[in-house]
Amino acid sequence: MKNLFTWILPCACIILLAFATCSNDNVGSDGNGEIAEPPLVAQPTPISFLKTNGTVLCNEAGDTIQLKGTNLGSYISLEQWMSPVGTGHLSRDKWNLKVSSSDGANPSQNIIDNKNNTYWSPSPTSTLEQEWITIDFGEEVVFNVLRFDIRRLNNDASYDLGVYKSNDGSGWELIGNYKGQVNSDNLQIGMGDFFMAKYLKINVKSQEYKNWKITELNLSMNDDYHIRKALIDRFGVKEADNLWDHYCNNWIKESDLELIRSMGMNVVRVPFFWMEIMDETGNIKDNAFRHLDWIIKECNKRNIYVILDFHCSPGGNDGYVTSGMAGYNNLWHSSEYQQMTLNIWRAIAERYRDEPTIACYDALNESWSTSSEMTLNNFYKQIYSTIRSVDNRHVICFQGFPSFEFVSSPVQNGWENVMYQAHYYNTDYKNEASQDGFAIHALSEMIRYQQRWNVPVLAGEFSFWEHEKVWKKFLVGMNSMHASWTNWSYKSRESNSSRANFAFYTDLTVGDPDILLNSADEIKSVWSKITSGNFVKNTPFINLIKGVINRDSQISATPIYIKQWDGTFLKLSDNGELSFSVIDSKDASKFYIEKQAKGGIAIKAPNGNYLSVDRNSKIIFCSQAVRGEYELFHWIDLTNSEFALWGYHGFVSCNGGNANLTSDRDAIDGWERFTWTVASN
């Protein structure tokens, strides 16, 4: 998994935090590899076009719609660690091989000639580590699997290899040492991470090589591009499409969407790879929309919105395996790839401009530009113009990656009806304190840009792993600021370890098909077993999400006391100044929370005036009898009676204790975190 940057509105005075749980927890296998259809929850708001209204999304009736859902990862955009997809060979057309020795008259080309009756074997008189193979790829390539087709001379064959890469053919860097038993006529060595190189050297480090001969040598990559290419190269376009359809139709089924709806979710984010829509010649495919059409139709039946996430662009958009072309980030330097990307968006917008089920167009996923000219924001401008030339109705979503700083505000860009998105991952999986601090950081960033740019925001991907309290804090906080969210991801084949506790279904024991050797029927047989019913239901995580999906602060007429972390209470002085100056609640001031029609709250003090942010000093006073923009605050519920406040200029802070309250901070830290208690009458 890539190293990613990461990122309530109460309704009165007593804040009643209650889990809104669904009645069903019996979603499991029906005995046929399917998930049993759960009973339905109350019908969600009927589907209608969404549009932005300041910091929130609204439907055509004017109702505020907060999107809460999940990602359909590895559905029509593959990530091999999530699903059993296999690996695809790299092209060997430009390879030039050299070997240390040959057995008789057999040249090195024998191991790349696609013939099983030719081979290379080392000299029978060589000594330890004298045998090697070097490959000049002719260009920089990306790989993560080393594969030998071999002829075993006995059943005791083993291997002990050192593998090195180079960019110039002279300076060599060790990739890894690999050893083990040769148990079949195919030896496949997974290298873990992917590597980029122009040259490769394989050193034989044991005499055991004399017990086997190499008939073919291949390097493979298990990203989306190479997998699709391998299927097309072996079976042709038509049969490759049939295989691909079989995979997709089993990965996500109607019963999966029923589960999603039963949890109270109202949106799925659907990542897609560019080759789903377009062929390599740049033409829109005749069957380009078959999978998108299906998921949109089925979601519409269930009042579930769809976010179309352009996950992987032509040429690669970030250099990671998750962009579909590991190691490549060429979108930013190629006008051809840029135009292909724009043409795909034009085709999508033309097809779906009248489809209300689509919540938004997600312009590009986690894109990282390496060009000073074609920056992320500059290319976003082109995508926006392309979509708007044919579709003025749908919301367009732009990701700030690796942070919002790489994207300009909608006002600066002249954009309308747009939403902004961030992704949050902290890979310190086991450290709850680290995850908790990270969740606070994410909430701080989301509301900061939401309020300052006056736009809806979406946490499109995130995980807090095994830390239930942190999940609750983040999701309740998102709910209270009416920010949308889609967790990553619906299901994953990984075991439900701390690192994998982000999926509703885990622990798939089905291995990868060998898409390079297996027949089409054999590949289908493997992919028939990837239905959710063959996973393990992650019941604790499902219950966690069901419990917080509608959890938010509630308004009551009861007054509250406000306390800071050192135990002192907020006191209003006779001259209207505020400070945390008393240690007993009986000496504290009572405050009343009033919900505002356009979102946010006003805070009324005992003197009848409202808390107000001075437009210049940013100090908070209690001197205004009427409510305006400087009396508007946003409550971010951090759970367990803990909250933060966003005022006109920033987060509210008590500035180290007894100093005046201010609204001037960019992040939630110790002095920006408060608790409330019910005030006595």
Description:
The protein has three domains: 51-85 and 225-548, TIM Barrel (Alpha-Beta Barrel), CATH 3.20.20; 90-221, Galactose-binding domain-like (Jelly Rolls, Sandwich), CATH 2.60.120.260; 560-678, Trefoil (Acidic Fibroblast Growth Factor, subunit A) (Trefoil). It contains ten helices and 32 strands. It starts with 50 loop residues before the first strand and ends with a strand. The protein is α/β, with parallel strands linked by helices and 681 residues long.
What's the arrangement of secondary structure elements?
Blueprint: E1 51-53, E2 56-58, E3 64-65, E4 68-71, E5 88-89, E6 96-99, E7 131-152, E8 158-166, E9 173-181, E10 186-204, E11 212-221, H1 224-251, H2 254-262, E12 267-273, H3 290-301, E13 305-312, H4 335-352, E14 358-362, H5 376-388, E15 395-399, H6 410-413, E16 418-425, H7 432-453, E17 457-463, H8 468-480, E18 484-487, E19 505-506, H9 520-527, E20 536-537, H10 539-548, E21 560-564, E22 569-572, E23 578-582, E24 592-595, E25 601-604, E26 610-613, E27 620-624, E28 634-637, E29 642-646, E30 651-653, E31 662-665, E32 674-678
Parallel strand pairs: 4-12, 4-18, 12-13, 13-14, 14-15, 15-16, 16-17, 17-18
Antiparallel strand pairs: 1-2, 2-3, 5-11, 6-7, 7-10, 7-11, 8-9, 8-10, 19-20, 21-32, 22-23, 24-25, 26-27, 28-29, 29-32, 30-31
